[in-house]
Amino acid sequence: MSEHYTFTVEVYTNALVVTGSYDLPLYRRVSDALNSGLHRFITLRDASVAPLWRPQQARRVPQILVDWSGALLVATIAEPLPPPDFHVPTPPRDTQPMMFFTSMFALRADFFKRTDMELIVMLREMTDEFVPLTGVTIYPLQGAAPFNREFVCLNRRYVQALYAIGAEIAHAPLPAPNPEVFVPPAVPTSPPPAETEAPPAAVETGAPAPDTDQS
Q1: Measuring CA to CA, how many Å separate 62 from each of 32, 46, 53, 59?
Q2: Which pTM does this prediction carry?
Q3: Is residue 189 part of a domain?
């Protein structure tokens, strides 16, 4: 059997939680594997499936296929050691504490923010389906107790709101005006000259008007 790296993951949907072993032929983060887009379904071995928030009803199965596109989040429970020559080829990043909200969860987590890009620009230009998060506290919105996971892949399509914790308020850059429809502001002009008064009418004296007929 060829060498592989086995991760233990939890997949949360709107109705289910599926736990099992996820095998990868190459070592990489689970988020990188999900974002590769090679397969719609991921295969989990030695798995269990249960209704969300009812773990006592879990059913054990030797293998299960999970549609990752319908997952709200995928949490890593255990992971193998990386190979000695493994290096993550990413731009320099900082972590930014964030809050994320989905239909089922609120998550407080550290988000990997690029140091050469504003947060709002990075979020706008992000194309990965799953966002990697670390140091995650998950708050179920249905009232269950919160729980912690060290690494979580959050499905970006299901994020309904988010905000940065402790960050300065950043304003979204305004779009540049379209030169085809841009109307320059009116330039103030000097006030129009005052109307000249009409000459006074001739005062009527009762004398006959002079005869101008030369005939």
Answers
A1: 25, 5, 22, 10
A2: 0.72
A3: no
